[in-house]
Amino acid sequence: MKNKIIKLTATIITLVGLTGISTPAFADCTDPCNCPGIPEEVKIASGCNPGESGGTIDTVIISILNGIIGILAIVAVVVIIIGGVQLMTSAGDAGKVKRGKDAILYACIGLVICALAATIVNFVISKL
Questions:
Q1: Potential cystine with 79: which of 2, 35, 87, 107 (Cβ 3.0-4.6 Å)?
Q2: DSSP H or E stretch at residue 119
Q3: How far apart are CA 44 and CA 68, in angstroms?
Q4: CB atoms inside a 10 Å sphere around CB 83
Q5: Cα–Cα dist 4/60, whole Å
Q6: From CA 107, how far away is CA 86, in angstroms rounded?
Q7: 3 state SS of 32
């Protein structure tokens, strides 16, 4: 049991390192208001003057909905990882194999829905 916990912890640390979650996004820029390539949502959240095009209600709604969709996508990826662990540790038990495969399948479907939802939200809000 102790070895499984150590292996799981090492796997999680490796995955976090490989995905770049711990890497700062804009470490080379000291002023987020004047850095090129930073999205308007980040500039608004940093307290910058949004200018003429930013800061409207549609930008705020898109930011909130995209944040929620992003969180749901992260949850789906975590469920895929959990399903993979269930599948690998099933030891041939048909019930555990089915649960692991179902978790991976449903999480993949959830990721597709998140991607479609983000696209639809951005399209509909921009057309209003």
A1: 107
A2: helix 94-127
A3: 17
A4: 20
A5: 44
A6: 14
A7: coil
Residue located via tokens 């800061």: 55
Q: What amino acid occupies position 76?
A: A
CA distances from residue 74 to 29, 43, 66, 92, 96 in whole angstroms, order as listed: 27, 23, 12, 29, 23
Which residues neighbour 58 within 8 Å (Cβ) at sequence distance 6 or greater? 125, 126, 128
Instruction: Compute mean pLDDT per 10 residues along the chain, 128 residues long, and list them.
Output: 70 64 52 68 67 63 84 91 92 89 92 88 78
In contact, 43 and 50? CB cutoff 8 Å = yes
Q: What is the token pair recorded at 43?
A: 């500039």
| Token couple for 27 | 């470490």
Q: Please give the full DSSP string across 53-85, using - where no structure is assigned.
A: TSSSHHHHHHHHHHHHHHHHHHHHHHHHHHHHH
Report the interhelical angle of 94-127 vs 57-88 (nearest 10°): 170
